[in-house]
Task: structure prediction
Amino acid sequence: MAGKIKSEDPFSQKSVRIWRMIQLLVWITGAGILFNLIVFPKLGIHLFWNILIPVAPALLVISVGVWRNICPLATTALLPNHLGISKRKKITAKQSGILNLVAVMALFIIVPLRHAIFDMNGLATALLIISLGVVSIILGLFFEWKSAWCSGLCPIHPVEKLYGLKNTFSIPNMHCASCIRCVVPCPDSTSGIHPLSVKKTDYQKIAGLLITGGLPGFIWGWFHVPDYHEITSAVQLIEIYMLPLFGLITTTLMFLFTKKFFDSKILVPLFSAAAVSCYYWFRIPALLGFGIFPGNGMLVDLTGVIPEWLVISVSTLLAVFFFLWIVFSKNNKNSWLIKPAYADLRLNSKKLGTAKK
Result:
């Protein structure tokens, strides 16, 4: 028909070029933050821990696909595949499950160390980021595409699955020119995926339970621990883990108990909303100088500029928003990203076979 408007191909060359520019800019920004963490640590800490990280949970809730497209570590992890030096091994369900569980454990180990090391030490944070980047590249050297890091060992991935339940809209998957089924199910292209929806192995079941049931309590406990400028005794090291782990165990037991009476379709969104709401309930006051421990995690001190009730009101409104969005909004069943066309795996196998000969 003459008057019919053709929709633009989401994987067109123009779209790809735009996203490549965005990915490059975000990667350069990440490199800039890394540089500041080493050379200007105070500025680097503010940029990373007090600006980037506080924005990330809200982005995961609204559109996790955007983050999946632009994450600097994801771009780094895929370098071996782009350069053609990856062995491109197909990951097994057991390997994927183990990586998922290790990712959850890594999250719960690393985050409390912020109170003792990373929130005060820019070089230590830089070394943490570099270490994660090296690990992601090593995994990329052996395994196919996004299977081992982005959908496996990345400590943020479990949170992506918990917070990304009501993804606003699907955008083109700009890391995958074609789908090679590197991991099944693909978290990027599977509608309604969440931490408990993949039950291929016991590792995945345990990982899903810990992140879904445990994260709200873990976050609550983390915000009730003060920062230590240095660890001088084993007691302090125990203290930074005690409350977060207590909270994790408590809400995990609550989840297991309520699971006897309610379906996961109800509980997972509730615990997801509780986790992200709890985070911002404590994080926003801390950023503005109204935290439980004044000065800890502070971006700017506004205690003498704005009233505390205003900060509490903002935190409350955000909590209401997250519950309405995650729990009560209509499930639009959008996947995080639009799946590209399937690759001809038989052709890929022939190419790999020829290369081996």
User: Anything to note?
Assistant: The mean pLDDT is 90. The longest helix spans residues 41-70.
